Amino acid sequence: MKKYDVICMGTALVDSIIKGFDPNPVSASGYRSESGVLSLGGEALNESMAAAKLSLKTGLVCAVGEDAAGDMIIAGVKKAGVDPELIIHLKDYSTPVSTIFVHEDGTRKSITNRSHKYNFHPEKYTSLYMDARALVLGSLFRAPFDDPTIIRMVLEAVKKSDAIVFADTKLPNFRVLSLEDIADSLPLIDYLTPNEDEARYFSGKEDPEEMADVFLDMGIKNIIIKLGSKGCLFKNNNETIRLRAYKTDAVDATGAGDNFLAGFVSEILRGKPHKEALCFANACGAICTTKIGAGSALENRDQVKKWIEEFN
Predict the structure, then answer these.
(1) For the chain, does the N or the C end have fewer beta carbons within 10 angstroms?
(2) pLDDT at 282 over 80
């Protein structure tokens, strides 16, 4: 028996979410918005909190600084049921803080800063993530997984433990990598989950199935392309599945993809077939968009199952 069902590894940060920003100044240096809230964020943190809410024994491998944002992250993951013991505390390090502008339709734009370069080397802590049934990398092409050597060392270590490897992706920011730059690591990934924009960027294709084929040809075993309001596409060498998205009045899409991935991991680890796992994942992503913040709306598996029953 493994200690954890899943370990999520990567970025943890604090989001300052501004909704309804009015660009017209009310004074020489003052602006207004509809609301402003602080919320925990970062792909790995979002995925870990969602996984814990879905009753998975969950650990989080990330780094935080000795600052207020780091303290907020520790308190938040504990409250969500995530084991905080795998979190690395670094001196002389600032926990990343993002500013996110949420538009009326729930879409958003974010501002990153130098702290997002994330001076954290998970390959130095392999003992922390060898005792799990699954590992989730959140996300490839963003620190710390914007270094081919780090990616390779982490994946080689994890595969020795027979864990299933799931990886999300992000568009590059501070350091730009291509699929070719990490070609030797891609066959070690069991499931890759880019959104449509990311899949288009890395594959150079416009059609989702052609996008998926590029990733499969690079050795990834299964590819899921998240298509937002159009649903998702799953493809491997044996099956192709297209699912429509659940219709909902989106308030904030922040973290929807992370909740989607946590939902998919949850059901795969429970032995569900791909189509059923994708349906559950779609519901998790849709639920996430109904409130502001990546971890505000999803509550538990019963909520997701009820959502699916009501919309089917």
Answers:
(1) N
(2) yes
